[in-house]
Amino acid sequence: MHELSFREVWKARKRIEPFIQPTPLLYSEALSEQTGANVYLKLEHDHPTGSFKLRGAANKILSLKEEDRQKGVTTFSTGNHGISVAYMAAKLNIPCTVCISNHVPPAKVNRLKKLQARVEITGVSQDDAEARCVELEKEEGMTIIKPFDDKEVIAGQGTIGLEIMSQCPDVDEVIIPLSGGGLLSGIAFVMKSIEPAVHVTGITMKKAAVMQESLAKGKPVILEEEPTLADSLLGGIGTDNRFTFPMTRMYMDEGVRVDESQIEEGLLYILNHHKIVIEGAAATGIGHILYSDFGEGKNIVAVLSGNNIDHEVISDLIHKS
Ligand SMILES: *Cc1c(COP(=O)(O)O)cnc(C)c1O
């Protein structure tokens, strides 16, 4: 059993309230007409950092004791999690070190530096960067802010579930992009606690669906990464996973894998019909919806998890289409 309680999610909501606004739930007329269901979009790209990861990072950092805050925080993520940790640390005037390998592209490094993070370049791989984080924890007493396998992080993402339940109490199904499983664990825990019949669907790209493979094997597995438009869903779940593996096993009713063309289609669909730019990871759920039959009148909520996509990537997609 995991140890997350509903009270922890309410506490998270209270903690992050001064920094994070609730996001809208948008009724999608286009997707509803297309599918016959009532499809709603939870606009989790609509945060100052461009992704929901701000909720978990904020809750974790705000829950640290004052003396630990002073010693600083560290992470080895250069993606949405790293950006959110750096953003929150800057807001609260807390020292933040992001450890990266020398393979990280300059654009990402510059974005982190703009957020006032100290960027430490060590080694040639993600593993080297992680090892440096552990050193900083030991030597300087910094706190490692994990991207998903942490109770406060999961509780932070769970606040999305509270919002969905108040914005659409009749929800039948929630569709959630899945990587490490922090997003799905938090939302599903909250929604199933309120209404166990809510159907929870987790979506991953076909290439390297680590959580889904791990669930099939009954233990965390390691898969080789392959390039995908849903780059924010890359990465392992950790062989020492404590929370998100058992929680995903407990709460996910259905795991779906979409191929790259579906992700592209989902992304362009949201751009064309809503004039909203989302990244590949967020488009996985839409790619699934476009090929699904939910049944007339069902209330479906899809989580649009982020919008951090390079302009060249999106312009290539538009020209190709
Ligand atoms: C991190 C991330 C996800 C997946 O979240 P997990 O908690 O790792 O499952 C989905 N979409 C975007 C945009 C992300 O940054």
UniProtKB/TrEMBL annotation:
GO terms for biological process: isoleucine biosynthetic process; L-serine catabolic process; L-threonine catabolic process. It comes from the Bacteria. GO terms for molecular function: L-serine ammonia-lyase activity; pyridoxal phosphate binding; threonine deaminase activity. Its cofactor is pyridoxal 5'-phosphate. Keywords: Lyase, Pyridoxal phosphate. It holds the Pfam family PALP. CDD domains: Thr-dehyd (cd01562). It is an enzyme of class 4 (lyase). It catalyses: L-threonine = 2-oxobutanoate + NH4(+). Residues 16-306 form the Tryptophan synthase beta chain-like PALP domain. Its EC number is 4.3.1.19. Catalyzes the anaerobic formation of alpha-ketobutyrate and ammonia from threonine in a two-step reaction. The first step involved a dehydration of threonine and a production of enamine intermediates (aminocrotonate), which tautomerizes to its imine form (iminobutyrate). Both intermediates are unstable and short-lived. The second step is the nonenzymatic hydrolysis of the enamine/imine intermediates to form 2-ketobutyrate and free ammonia. In the low water environment of the cell, the second step is accelerated by RidA. Belongs to the serine/threonine dehydratase family. This is threonine ammonia-lyase.
